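Re: Re: ligand-bound prediction request (bumping)

Still looking for help on this. To restate: I need the protein modeled with 6-O-phosphono-beta-D-glucopyranose bound, output as structure tokens. Inputs repeated here so nobody has to scroll up.
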Amino acid sequence: IPVDPFDLVIFGGTGDLARRKILPGLFRRFCGGQMPPEARIIGAARSDMDDAGFRQMVAESIHEFGDKRHPHEDQLPAFLERVSYETVDATGDGGWTALKARLRPGTVRAFYFSVGPSLFGDLAERLRGFGLADDDSRVVVEKPFGHDLKSARALNATLARHFSEQQIYRIDHYLGKETVQNLMAVRFGNMLFEPLWNAQYVDHIQITVAETVGVGGRGGYYDKSGAMRDMVQNHLMQLLCLIAMEPPARFEPDSVRDEKLKVIRALDPVDWHHIVRGQYAPDGDTPGYRHDVEDPRSRTESFVALKCHVSNWRWAGTPFYLRTGKKLRARTSEIAVVFKDAPHSIFGADAGRHRNVLSIRLQPNEGITLGVTIKEPGPGGMRLVDVPLDMTFADALGPDVEDVPDAYERLIMDVIRGNQTLFMRGDEVEAAWAWTDPIIEGWIARNEVPKPYDVGSSGPDDSLMLMHKDGRKWREIR
Ligand code: BG6
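Reply:
Sorry for the wait, this slipped through. Here it is.
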């Protein structure tokens, strides 16, 4: 379904995120017929460039980062006609009047701040001051949304001086992933799971976001953040919220966000014995983390594993184990809901111990699998085996799964539609920092050095111990 015609201004239009995600994503939506012909995309940045130069950059980005299987070359010229560029000085007056002249009255207006947070205030002030934004305009902001509670509050206050909460779209691209939304469909669209979705039946929950990439060219940013700020405070906590939250009354922005906020507020402070920090070590000729960030003494973590508790009626006593890291064995993001043992085994000890596990795979091979126990086929007597009830989207949906929009595409279209359901509210972001700040402060106070781990492993051994101590086991990263 096409969205309304829009003018989308991308500040930082020549930057990495725009080239990798935003522009190729918009092109996919254009090819998918969702971006109407009247839509306009205006890149804005400090670089001196004209429309032709920007179009060339956009075309190159699409070639490099776009959909290789469906390149849609024939549609590229028509898309580029809708793209233009304005040189704008975020901290001065240059270019703002010209940018304003490119915007059309009566069209949905969205301003994407694909720039560092230190510029949010300057941009917001000038958008209002030069009359580019009005009370219907939308602003889209990216993480990092602050680096602690204090800075996040300051950013929220800065934005709130110029825009209402209904106009602010804080992106956490994990919320735009197909399976993440499917998680809500599975939980709240079926009778089967919700009655079991509590401490009485769930033994524990594991959330793993494992990456094979290192810090790449982002060492400068990453070394000041680490895995806790870069991944746990946002992506992993959002996944935890969706798993743990109560059913919202409606699939509407504030219904959903109110429930997520309650989960964050119900999180107990994490006991420092229940957190493992890691840093990938050098291995022969392969450089380690410290080399990648060019700081031989860096104590920033590229891996975190932790155990936490949501202290409320539903989850009392059920631990949530979270882990994420770079340069691990495989790229896998998975949420696993591990159910308790059946109360009594009528088949005797020899039949083996089996547990139902609902696995929600975000990537790769997006899909949902339920491990169920059946009798091992054949004459061997009553032996039990686990088999998966598998709903891999590519199998279930056939070739159409190729057309499923990726996270950024979907979220940008939601901005144009004015739907905030999959965006973080200011109070949620603040509550998440309020939970992670003491963890980070504790590391600093205890002068903690992250544990080294091998590139291509599952993280430091201590993270395995975190589970073993509780008589549990991480699922394999593969
Ligand atoms: C980003 C982090 O938010 O998410 C990166 O800053 C990380 O460090 C990325 O690599 C992971 O996203 P995805 O979609 O590839 O799992």
